[in-house]
Design a protein that fits this description.
single chain; alpha+beta; 5-stranded antiparallel β-sheet
Length: about 90
């Protein structure tokens, strides 16, 4: 079974990832990433620019990582960006 891991990209930095997990295929890994993103957005700390972040899905086979912008997940879920999901103010 293929192995994947999920890493958070925030403040233009890729944060350390966790352990590799076995998931049936790339589509299932993307579904798992969407569920993780939803959990992050549901618990959003208002001091963190979550809408600027992304989940990066890495595959154990060395293929190109898939980037899942949190902004896209919030839009797909019809989530109100509210103060906890605000973008960085420049």
């Amino acid at each position: 079974m293929p192995r994947y891991r999920f890493r958070l990209s925030l403040y233009e930095r890729l944060l350390d990832g966790g352990d590799w997990v076995e998931i049936a295929d790339a589509a299932s890994a993307l579904g798992a990433a969407r569920r993780l993103a939803r959990a992050l957005l549901d618990l959003a700390d208002p001091t963190v620019p979550w809408m600027d972040g992304a989940l990066v899905i890495e595959s154990g086979d060395g293929s190109e990582p898939v980037i899942l912008p949190l902004r896209d997940v919030a839009a797909d879920l019809g989530m109100d960006p509210g103060p906890g999901l605000a973008t960085t103010r420049h």
